[in-house]
Amino acid sequence: MVVDADGNVVYRQQGGPSNVLVVGEERAAQSLADALGQWHGPVAGAVLGMAGADREPVARYWRYLAQRYWDTRILVVGDYRIAWAAFTRLQPGVIGIFGTGSVVYGERGSTSVKVGGHGWRLGDDGSGLEIGRLAVNAALAALEGWGPRTTLVEEVLAWSQVGSAADLISRLYDRAFDWRRLADLAPAVISAHPTDAVARDIVAQQGQLVVRQLARVYETLFQPESASIGLSGGLATFWADWVKPLWPYPVARLEVVEREPVWGAAEWARQLFGAGL
Predict the structure, then answer these.
(1) 26 phi and psi, to 5 degrees?
(2) CA atoms within 13 A on the CB side of 144
(3) Are 96 and 231 spatial neighbours (Cβ–Cβ below 8 Å)?
């Protein structure tokens, strides 16, 4: 998204996946090219919020690639930081992002705190991927006869299009299987949790971890003062409703974030450069 100095959108387009650590440099570069394909004008500066960019090799790659398009000032940050900027408008606050993965991040002045965001290999608490992984484990335990019965068995088998524990394991260990697809099971777990004890335990366990992560960042940066805490991502509304009754700090109000992360990059660019991407 390109905006002018007053914040008016003058160009906007969407590309494909751009996490270099997942799709590789060639696919990520093509995604940026797709997003910029119809934009040929100069910019005063650019802010890129990219997955994995809090790792210096990833940030360095994006700075190098961006310089092919703009001979100007470029700031590369992790994607969660532009989500934070979109919610807080670059003011002190906290954001919890709960989608396929999860991360909780806050800034206050020169101090920042990040919890989670470890990625799909390690699992992110409260994320769709982690909920899906736990659902698969529960289904396997039930299929093998040592775990409690659960309606998640039918959900997992239908999702994986297999009919047995052995076939399920084979499907998951197939080299072509994308582990991020486990997040597709999260809605089934959430739908089942009011009536299924196993699903309820998964939600309760993950919900407690969501509370602890949000509280950790709030306590470090703001306690006992008030603070803005936003939840974004595909599971934000569910976790906001689930967490609110358990949240121990009424001065720190939880709310679902409506503003898209790209607006955080635009606001940041305007503040730094007067106009930007």
Answers:
(1) -65, -45
(2) 13
(3) yes
